[in-house]
What we know:
Blueprint: H1 9-47, H2 50-53, H3 55-81, H4 86-89, H5 98-125, H6 141-171, H7 176-189, H8 196-214, H9 218-236, H10 243-270, H11 272-276, H12 301-324
Helix pairs in contact: 1-3, 1-6, 1-12, 3-6, 5-8, 5-9, 5-10, 6-7, 6-9, 7-8, 8-9
Amino acid sequence: MNSPFDDGEEIRLKSFRAAQNRISILMFIMLVTEFAASTLMIVLFAVFPQLKTDTFQFELMQALLYLSYVAVPVLLYGVISGKRLGNYFSFKRGRKHTVAVGFAAMGAVYFAQLVATVVSYLFESVNIYPDAGIFDPSSDPAVLALRFVYIAVFPAIFEELMTRGIVLRELLPYGKGFAIITSGAIFGLMHMNPLQLPFAFIAGVAMAYAVVYCGSLRVSVAVHFANNFISVLLTALPEFLPEDIAFYIEALITFVIFAAGSIAAIWLMLHKDELKEQKCVECNEPYKVDLRENTLKKISPMLYVYAAATVTMALVTLFTTAMAGL
């Protein structure tokens, strides 16, 4: 495919920055929406304190809060850009070996969880205990059903549409490497959690690579849903089974998934020559920007501002948690 920007690198660079600015606007909308929704929740808890004591009502509020700050920005982006969101949800052309790629991505996600565990231990070694985003165990069927919806289903749809759909697809024409790394970085930053940031970055890069390779968002949606579904399930197990049995089941599931992911990754590497023969029209970098020189200057200032804002919020959260532990 010939690029309409072959007249010069400067024209491609201008379009490249415009794409980054659109992404930045999307993420800033998410920040503002999350702040507004969180403020409203604080007010509601102050006016109706029973919302905090009733587990189901509390989790329902959490679900509505989450849905507001991930769904609203995505829908607004569709309105502002004038583009159908369906265009971002699938890259239309499927590829071979999608199942193997999905298992490999799942293995990478579990490796990312190991990294997050190490980071957690490092924090704890200096008496800092940041929120890991883990919810309290519950045996209430209504609470569990709600968690499966807003922790497994909603993120698999809206977070994937936002990061691997909109962000990745907007950047792919300018270079696969930058698109994959940036979408993974934004996935990490949007969590604004010191423990989830490294996990989400590694997992985000793995799922972005899977989407680029497979040519479909379905693989990352499936991996995201499976990971979060298993997390909810494992958290609930001690409420129904003896603690030691629940531990062994969790260890077995972790081992099987990590082993399957490792085997899939090795198999894919052994078949890399065959995989290179596959083509994907949407992933051929028609407007590729040369990032080998002056890379930092070619990144939009708005992306730097977004990164600084989210990192600052994560550090403030870490600092307040550390002060609370003193």
